[in-house]
Task: inverse folding
């Protein structure tokens, strides 16, 4: 019987930082399995290591020990060049701050990740895909606007589209609604949930917003360096 | 979306942020391009001047004191035409007679020394830079070049007096040279004043300063100086080859019909070798019917050794001697060398015959077996001395030493036999044509240049002179004669070719009979002799002039060096500003990395953007560089004119220079950006996204061990270099100075880095006080702080170090070790002084006042003119001026300070290094020069050699054996006088003098020398003033360096201001908080200013301390006194400037509302 490989699997991931009184553990033997199409919210108090965990999953940081496997491929063994490739092709990132490039239009911002890829098919289809996605998030009329001409919510939606432009398997969002007003946060939450559903996109969201967390399939709390399910929230 | 579009978008969006980077690149490019354009301009100007001074002349034959016939020009011209490489008279070879002169205007109110009088005809003007219709000047007219006309303050129509040195066949230094008037005065009317384009600047010597030229009629000058149909200069232009019929094709063979490339120098040498005549070497035939002989002789009295070598062979066993061919060509013809000398006395016992000629020769006059200790005496002498075979005959005679001192010597011979007065071969023609003797009616009229005691001349001696003239009274073997009388001018006075059985009293018949022999012998001799041995040698003057300008002092590199700090400052500023831009855009970089860009990819996007900015800066800089070059050239024509000898420099721009300079600046700028960007690319994306790039973000400051270690190692290295320089001053050069300086700067900056780290870790910094906050801020951006401190340190190092190297000529000028050698005056003569000015007789001969010259001593130098090899000549000296001196005179005085010696063992008596040693190769001559001349004007080092040719065309090498420090000897190389006269025997007398005079009578001595030696064109200059003129060049360079360094420092101060503003803006939140909790704005200002002023102080202190230590060897070696006061003022000004920028930047940054910054936080 063929065994299906989970999209993401974390095995005994540990992360420590050096401190004045010795190594300071942030993540301790953490494990996680996430299947394709799942959506997961990670909650926890400030400073518990949520962003560190997301950065490790997103290959922006490396664990002190343990394995991070994406579709069975151990990312901790890859060099920087391969990790950049993984970030570009398989992962999408949405930050609390949108980090749009102010010099580029909405459409151009969305297309920026395609500049890093050598996949011509992907690159050639990107403008059409970008337009479709921007249309999908309600920004079809704002293609040529600059980030400075958009509201906070709109900028964050552009950031989401930018994260999706290379058709990643996994979308990572770090406090995506943290800097938004309630209405914009609601809109963005809807968008993320809808994308998860419509595109069968695996989603991990680090958030303090329980409203958003509740709408995802799984909610886990990071405490004392370990993840545990919070079924009550679900 | 493409990468290019992304880059252009970024460029446009961040245009304002890039402005600083653009300006930094533009300044760097402008300075770089400007410096290179200055180099092009100097080279171009020198090339223009070289072409102006030579016109169309490509090769020149300058025989100096030797004269050739003007028909040589025609012969060579015809030879070139026949060889098919020239058309008749287009352009011709132009002969000229070039003589030194003194010029005076009509009322005597203006004089000019060292004037070149050129006797020319119409052919000369055809070689002018631009065609001119000037023909041979009228006999009563003179054409002056503009500098000479200005010096004499004359215009066309005015009268001038030229006192021209007459060419002498017999060197004034030669034995029996008469003390005749060596010059002739010409009163002439100024016909025209010639521009440079009209050949007014004509000169064969490389130099950008126009000579004083006076052009007169060739025929008139020849006649007035007694050199009819003779010249000493022959100019040749590249001829136009004759047009040939068009080429044809025969089958598959194309017959080339165009101009055939040829080498003019080779063609000239070939034609010269084929067509020169004995008369061109001042050799002439005299028919001696009574002796049945043809005699080869010279108005120069002594025949060059080459003649004897050609006829008899250069040594034992020589097979190519002419005598070997004579037997085949003319059976019975014999050749005999003759050396006739004037002796003071012939004595046997207590009987003596005064002032007689004695001949040394071989058969047929003397038996072949005449021993070297044997003599034949004439019947007349035998009777006068009542001597016979077996008696001992003593000869007393003068020889001339190297310094023209007469030394009487004696030699004793045994009388072997008595010659009858009509013995074959014994005739009055055995005496050469001694000027002042040959034409004298009686002995009392002799003008021999020797001290003659007329009271010793008896009536019978007068009777002998009347009857037998110069017929020798005694004859010795040629070997014995050569042993006694061979001198630097030659070893024969004639060569006799005796035809057996041809003695006759019928001169006409004899002349007819020997005419074919004379022609045949002439042909054989001209083929056997090398014309170069008589100074007949073409020099490729045009190629040499162009090489001199091409290899000239590279002002491009010089100004590049001078501007290096300015460029470094611009680049450092560019780096700081670019870094600020990148820091501001750190999240953007983080985003790119987060969405999958590799660091290299993201870096290339940023670098491409920066590269375009740099490209814009480069283009802007290339344009600005032209302005910068114009400004520098203006500076070189006005403020710094001493550096270029007053040469009016013209802007010469080459596209390659503009593009090359701009691209080099762009590349360096991009490299700088790469270095600035590298650290950011190593920063993790998460950190870039979160907080940008922060130093010391990871926690407390690392311990300063590494920085301290670097500081200590660099300090030890620097001290080692300084100690080595002090122990071995000979090896202390600029490299060592800059090496020690760089290490000290590194040590200082590493020390500052360690200090900043240490400050950050101190308890005081950890304390929550205003001062503690200040310390934390200063240590937080350590690299930025270090960059600014480094910039200021480098600038203050240069400014301080250069200040020390400024030269002051007047200080200690009376010391023997100083650059004046302790001499009070320098005297330079247009015409040689042949008498010894250190003797009463010599002074009396020139009418010099003995009282005024009491305690005045002269060190005379012989002079061989050549290129000025001092910093006053921008061209690379190809054949520098040579001075010949008796080394003992300088050794006794301990004059000058040697900074380099090839053989350090000679350090006790360095001037003796000029003496030929046992190991000195025969073709080498030791030479000493001024260190600056050797390094800059000649591009050589002590131990290296220069190729030279002596007067007889023989190559030799000048081996540089020593260098004296910063002296009045700049411009020439000094060799031993003995070597000088050996290599240049025709150069008579002395033209350069170093004069010791009591300080209180210096002006009086100068005035007396100027007056007494006026006709010789003597110009007297205080030695300290001459040194100051040389020093002015170096000081001007240093001044230029200081000005450009100061500009760099100014840019550094601007950098400091920028850093202050940036720091304050980054800390606006912190400062606003302090304001919010009750601190006064003034306290904040003090806090910010004091932080940065401390940085400024640290930078200056490091630079000044590094300079202080690095210059110690130079100061100790040269004895220079450090100008502390002016240095203090300069550095104070630098500090104030930096503090001013800091205060201005602080004020600007703290102006306005700070509190909104809290809300933004």
Result:
């Amino acid at each position: 019987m063929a065994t299906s490989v989970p999209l993401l699997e974390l095995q005994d991931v540990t992360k420590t930082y050096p401190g004045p009184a010795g190594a300071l553990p942030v993540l301790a033997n953490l494990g996680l399995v996430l299947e394709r199409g799942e959506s997961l919210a990670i909650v926890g108090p400030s400073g518990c290591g949520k962003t560190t965990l997301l950065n490790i999953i997103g290959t922006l940081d490396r664990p002190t020990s343990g394995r991070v496997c994406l579709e069975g491929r151990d990312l901790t063994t890859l060099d920087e060049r391969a990790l950049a490739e993984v970030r570009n092709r398989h992962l999408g990132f949405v930050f609390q701050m949108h980090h749009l490039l102010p010099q580029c239009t909405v459409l151009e911002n969305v297309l920026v990740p395609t500049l890093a890829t050598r996949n011509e098919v992907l690159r050639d289809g990107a403008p059409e895909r970008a337009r479709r996605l921007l249309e999908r998030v309600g920004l079809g009329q704002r293609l040529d606007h600059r980030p400075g001409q958009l509201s906070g919510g709109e900028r964050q939606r552009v950031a989401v589209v930018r994260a999706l432009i290379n058709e990643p398997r996994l979308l990572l969002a770090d406090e995506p609604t943290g800097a938004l007003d309630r209405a914009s946060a609601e809109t963005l939450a809807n968008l993320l949930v809808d994308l998860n559903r419509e595109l069968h996109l695996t989603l991990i969201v680090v958030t303090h917003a329980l409203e958003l967390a509740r709408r995802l399939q799984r909610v886990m709390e990071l405490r004392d360096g370990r993840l545990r399910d919070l079924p009550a929230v679900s | 979306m493409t990468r290019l579009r992304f880059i252009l978008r970024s460029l446009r969006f961040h245009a304002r942020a890039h402005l600083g980077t653009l300006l930094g690149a533009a300044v760097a490019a402008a300075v770089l391009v400007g410096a290179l354009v200055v180099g092009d301009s100097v080279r171009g100007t020198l090339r223009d001047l070289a072409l102006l001074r030579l016109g169309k002349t490509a090769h020149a034959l300058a025989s100096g004191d030797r004269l050739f016939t003007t028909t040589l020009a025609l012969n060579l011209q015809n030879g070139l035409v026949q060889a098919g490489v020239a058309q008749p008279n287009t352009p011709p070879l132009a002969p000229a007679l070039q003589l030194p002169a003194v010029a005076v205007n009509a009322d005597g109110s203006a004089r000019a020394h060292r004037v070149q009088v050129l006797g020319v005809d119409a052919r000369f003007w055809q070689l002018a830079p631009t065609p001119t219709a000037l023909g041979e000047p009228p006999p009563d007219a003179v054409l002056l070049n503009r500098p000479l006309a200005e010096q004499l303050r004359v215009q066309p129509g005015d009268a001038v007096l030229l006192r021209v040195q007459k060419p002498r066949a017999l060197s004034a230094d030669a034995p029996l040279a008469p003390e005749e008037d060596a010059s002739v005065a010409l009163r002439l009317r100024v016909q025209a004043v010639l521009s440079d384009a009209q050949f007014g600047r004509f000169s064969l010597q490389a130099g950008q300063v126009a000579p004083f030229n006076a052009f007169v009629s060739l025929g008139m000058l020849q006649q007035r100086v007694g050199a009819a149909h003779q010249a000493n200069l022959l100019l040749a232009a590249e001829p136009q080859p004759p047009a040939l019929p068009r080429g044809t094709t025969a089958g598959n063979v194309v017959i080339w019909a165009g101009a055939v490339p040829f080498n003019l120098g080779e063609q000239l040498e070939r034609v010269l070798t084929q067509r020169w005549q004995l008369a061109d070497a001042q050799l002439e035939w005299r028919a001696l019917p009574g002796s049945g002989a043809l005699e080869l002789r010279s108005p120069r009295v002594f025949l060059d050794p080459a003649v004897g070598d050609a006829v008899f062979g250069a040594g034992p066993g020589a097979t190519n001697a002419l005598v070997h061919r004579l037997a085949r060509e003319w059976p019975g013809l014999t050749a005999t060398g003759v050396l006739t000398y004037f002796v003071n006395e012939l004595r046997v016992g207590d009987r003596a015959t005064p002032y007689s000629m004695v001949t040394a020769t071989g058969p047929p006059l003397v038996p072949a077996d005449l021993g070297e200790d044997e003599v034949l005496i004439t019947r007349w002498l035998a009777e006068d001395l009542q001597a016979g075979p077996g008696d001992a005959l003593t000869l007393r005679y003068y020889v001339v030493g190297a310094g023209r001192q007469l030394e009487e010597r004696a030699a004793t011979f045994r009388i072997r036999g008595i010659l009858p007065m009509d013995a074959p071969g014994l005739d009055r023609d055995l005496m050469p044509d001694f000027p002042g003797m040959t034409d004298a009616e009686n002995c009392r009229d002799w003008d021999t240049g020797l001290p003659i005691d007329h009271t010793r001349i008896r009536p019978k001696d007068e009777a002998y002179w009347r009857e037998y003239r110069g017929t020798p009274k005694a004859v010795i073997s040629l070997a014995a004669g050569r042993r006694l009388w061979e001198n630097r001018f030659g070893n024969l006075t004639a060569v006799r070719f005796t035809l057996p059985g041809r003695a006759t009293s019928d001169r006409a018949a004899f002349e007819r009979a020997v005419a074919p022999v004379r022609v045949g012998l002439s042909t054989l001799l001209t083929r056997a002799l090398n014309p170069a041995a008589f100074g007949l040698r073409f020099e490729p003057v045009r190629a040499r002039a162009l090489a001199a300008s091409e290899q000239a002092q590279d002002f491009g590199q010089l100004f590049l060096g001078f501007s290096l700090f300015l460029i470094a400052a611009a680049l450092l500023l560019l780096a700081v500003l670019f870094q600020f831009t990148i820091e501001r855009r750190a999240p953007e970089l983080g985003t790119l990395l987060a969405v999958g860009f590799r660091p290299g990819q993201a870096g290339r996007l940023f670098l491409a953007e920066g590269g375009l900015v740099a490209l814009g800066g480069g283009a802007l800089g290339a344009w600005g560089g032209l302005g910068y070059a114009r400004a520098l050239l203006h500076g070189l024509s006005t403020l710094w004119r001493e550096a270029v000898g007053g040469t009016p420099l013209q802007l010469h721009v080459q596209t390659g220079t503009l593009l090359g300079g701009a691209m080099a600046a762009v590349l360096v700028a991009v490299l700088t950006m790469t270095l600035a960007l590298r650290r950011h690319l190593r920063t993790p994306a998460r950190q870039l996204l979160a907080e940008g790039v922060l130093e010391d973000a990871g926690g407390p400051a690392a311990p300063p061990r590494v920085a301290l270690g670097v500081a200590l190692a660099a300090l030890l290295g620097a001290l080692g270099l300084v100690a080595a320089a002090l122990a071995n001053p000979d090896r202390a050069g600029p490299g060592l100075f800059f090496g020690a300086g760089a290490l000290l700067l590194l040590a200082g900056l590493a020390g500052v880095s360690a200090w900043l780290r240490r400050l950050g870790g101190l308890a005081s910094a950890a304390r929550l006080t205003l001062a503690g906050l200040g310390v934390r801020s200063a240590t937080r951006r350590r690299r930025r702080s270090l960059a600014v401190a480094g910039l200021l340190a480098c600038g203050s190092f240069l400014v301080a170090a250069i200040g020390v190297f400024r030269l002051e000529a007047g200080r200690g000028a009376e010391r023997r070790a100083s650059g004046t050698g302790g001499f009070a005056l320098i005297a330079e003569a247009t015409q040689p002084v042949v008498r010894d000015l250190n003797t009463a007789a010599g002074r009396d001969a020139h009418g010099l006042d003995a009282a005024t010259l009491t305690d005045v001593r002269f060190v005379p130098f012989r002079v061989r003119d050549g290129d000025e090899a001092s910093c006053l000549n921008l061209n690379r000296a190809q054949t520098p001026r040579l001075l010949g001196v008796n080394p003992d005179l300088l050794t006794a005085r301990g004059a000058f300070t040697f900074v380099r010696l090839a053989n350090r063992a000679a350090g006790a008596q360095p001037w003796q290094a000029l003496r030929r040693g046992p190991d000195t190769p025969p073709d080498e001559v030791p030479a000493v020069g001024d260190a600056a001349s050797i390094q800059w004007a000649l591009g050589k080092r002590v131990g290296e050699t220069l190729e030279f040719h002596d007067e007889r065309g023989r190559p030799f090498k000048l081996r540089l054996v020593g260098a004296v420090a910063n002296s009045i000897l700049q411009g020439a190389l000094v060799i031993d006088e003995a070597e000088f006269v050996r290599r240049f025997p025709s150069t008579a007398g002395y033209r350069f003098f170093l004069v010791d005079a009591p300080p209180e009578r210096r002006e009086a001595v100068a005035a007396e020398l100027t007056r007494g030696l006026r006709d010789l064109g003597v110009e007297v200059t205080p030695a300290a003033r001459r040194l100051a003129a040389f020093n002015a060049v170096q000081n001007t360079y240093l001044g230029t360096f200081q000005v450009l360094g100061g500009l760099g420092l100014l840019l550094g101060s601007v950098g400091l201001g920028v850093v202050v503003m940036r720091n304050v803006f980054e800390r606006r939140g912190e400062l606003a908080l302090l304001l919010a909790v009750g601190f006064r704005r003034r306290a904040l200002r003090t806090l910010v200013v004091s932080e940065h002023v401390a940085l400024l102080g640290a930078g200056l202190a490091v630079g000044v301390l590094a300079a202080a230590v690095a210059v110690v060897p130079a100061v100790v070696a040269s004895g220079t006194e450090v100008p502390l006061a002016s240095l203090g003022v300069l550095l104070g000004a630098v500090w104030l400037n930096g503090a001013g920028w800091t205060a201005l930047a602080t004020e600007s940054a703290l102006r306005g509302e700070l509190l909104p910054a809290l809300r933004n936080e």
